[in-house]
Amino acid sequence: MTSTQPFVMINWADEAERLSAAVADDAAWYRLVAHELVRPADRLAVDVGCGGAGMAEALGAELPPSAFVVGVDSDVEVLDAARRRIVESGIDDGHLRLLRADLDTELAVLPTVARGADVIWASSSIHHVADQQGAIDALAALLAPGGRLALAEGGLPGRHLPWDIGIGTPGLEVRLLAAEDRWFARMRAGLPGSVPMPYGWPTALRRAGLSDVSTRTFTFERPTPLSAADLRSVLDTLAQRVRRADADGELDPSDARTWARLLDPGDDAWLGRRDDVFSLSARSVHVGHRT
Ligand SMILES: C[S@@+](CC[C@H](N)C(=O)[O-])C[C@H]1O[C@@H](n2cnc3c(N)ncnc32)[C@H](O)[C@@H]1O
After folding, report:
1. Which end of the chain, N or C, is more open, meaning fewer C-beta atoms within 10 Å of its C-beta?
2. Residue 8's pLDDT is what?
């Protein structure tokens, strides 16, 4: 099924609270990756497309006390929510700065805060930029000698449901992934000045002049049966993904009806009543080094 509806670009302001709330879920992973990326002599780290600034916080915790971290994002409300989260968690020691800059149109601003960075981290943000290679080139050029550019992109999307869920047509979740893939293609095509990047992230890092490029993939699996909190988090994520795919007309109408029942606490088929919902996914981190 291919939508004929006009594509609605993501309004990041609508995602601001969700991005900040998601930091808690990813905090352990951020700590692990930050620990591997940061070196004792590092002085500056940058989290690009920082969302809730969870990785900015983790990088700050790994760096020496005199070092600085900058979180960069194009959306004011995303940054406001991140700032509130940081103040509420009591980690504001004056060494973490948040800056609004758009990687599509304001790359020239970045050297003022990020030139000579030891670590630049960009998670799920570069794929929203029209010229991905152009942004990666610009970020690589900011690195200090020995600096690392880490892109958290790709991996395997989350899987949560048995193939046959008992209502609707089996394979519901695979079709949601296919709908999201079509949505992604339209999102990329809809970015003003969109430039294709018909190769993978490690190649993009090498083309940016970085060396020792490597990829590490982290798997995420929550114990089953899921705890009440994990189940709630999975259902919230599914609801958000279904909403987005449906709003853009990418979901088959009968699948949309099945999802509506599965996600309705008042329905007998509500997923919250099941003990076979699971959570499995993988995220890849691609790292290149400046010599
Ligand atoms: C999917 S979220 C990822 C947030 C966070 N890095 C994470 O992994 O949870 C994408 C983030 O990139 C930001 N973003 C999207 N396009 C951008 C652009 N052109 N320049 C800078 N930030 C951008 C959004 O505002 C959003 O916070």
Report:
1. C
2. 63
